[in-house]
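FORM 12-B: Structure-to-Sequence Request
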């Protein structure tokens, strides 16, 4: 069994493959590179066969989505570790060695994230991951280097190897058997927070997630869901509730869930005024869906059995710090 594989999930993404795959092929030796094609109808597969015969192809007849695309592919790949890599990510020289170094230092580390910078503005962190993700006391996600819409310039202020709550799904280094044992990515999340859910399960299983500052990639981002669309608002609020229902400890969940619902109702007015009434309706839809699917979500919680472990969670309320106290960067918290 080889040590590491690089796995890209593609659906009608020839343009991204043409732009970003050259860096992956150039800088990922000697590791195997797989492209999992999710039933593309463009010329992606023929392009790969003609241009990159060294890239291994796994072709599905239909689109299984982001989560199940990976869930169905990883059992077919024989490597100890794998990197789930978006097709809109440019990697850099020697990017895999620091990731492997983290798991070699501590075998209890099962997931690692590199430094993720913005492909369009390479001096700044990228929204989805930056220098590692955290949750606040209410379960709201943010990153070192990105809080809400504030993206920091990378001035080496977060150049420390550090335990983090969650690693970005745009470039997620993970122990493959751990991924499989935990059930992989939850397809019910569809396309938002699924990597946070997986990382929370990794922590609840007694393992760790860390950030490696010595590996850098550049992420284009924004290709899956437009934040201006009500669908994004719906998934944000629905999956945020599902996240804590599935994974939070019982004593925490008893008070946290009702308060989260109240906070969401407060946000409903803000979203309706700023983005339009359709976004307020999306929050109502998110709550209704959470209620309808509560038995299914609770069933997953029973299988997970949330544990009291030393997870690196921010103990404050990030919205209060950001909007009221004016703390816009992670190092100000």
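FORM 12-B RESPONSE
SEQUENCE OUT:
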């Amino acid at each position: 069994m080889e040590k590491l594989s690089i796995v890209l999930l593609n659906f009608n993404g020839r343009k991204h493959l043409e732009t970003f795959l050259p860096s992956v092929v150039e800088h990922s030796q000697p590791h195997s590179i797989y492209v999992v094609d999710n039933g593309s109808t463009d010329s992606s597969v023929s392009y790969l066969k003609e241009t990159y015969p060294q890239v291994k192809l796994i072709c599905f007849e239909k689109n299984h989505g982001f989560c199940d695309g990976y869930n169905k592919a990883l059992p077919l790949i024989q490597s100890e570790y794998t990197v789930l890599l978006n097709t809109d990510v440019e990697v850099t020289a020697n990017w895999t060695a620091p990731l492997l170094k983290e798991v070699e230092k501590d075998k209890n580390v099962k997931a690692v994230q590199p430094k993720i910078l913005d492909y369009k503005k390479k001096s700044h962190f990228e929204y989805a991951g930056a220098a590692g993700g955290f949750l606040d006391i209410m379960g709201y996600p943010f990153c070192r280097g990105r809080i809400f819409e504030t993206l920091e310039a990378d001035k080496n202020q977060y150049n420390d190897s550090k335990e983090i709550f969650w690693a970005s799904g745009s470039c997620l280094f993970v122990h493959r058997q751990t991924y499989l044992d935990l059930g992989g990515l939850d397809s019910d999340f569809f396309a938002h927070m699924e990597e946070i859910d997986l990382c929370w399960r990794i922590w609840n299983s007694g393992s760790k997630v860390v950030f490696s500052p010595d590996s850098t990639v550049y992420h284009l981002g924004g290709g899956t869901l437009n934040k201006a669309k009500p669908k994004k608002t719906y998934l944000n609020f629905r999956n945020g509730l599902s996240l804590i229902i599935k994974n939070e400890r019982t004593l925490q969940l008893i008070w946290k869930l009702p308060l989260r619902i109240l906070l969401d109702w407060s946000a409903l007015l803000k979203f309706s005024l700023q983005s339009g009434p359709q976004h307020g309706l999306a929050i109502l839809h998110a709550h209704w869906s959470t209620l309808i699917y509560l038995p299914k979500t609770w069933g997953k919680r029973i299988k997970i059995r949330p544990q009291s472990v030393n997870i690196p969670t921010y103990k404050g309320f990030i919205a209060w710090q950001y909007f009221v106290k004016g703390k816009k960067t992670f190092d100000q918290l």
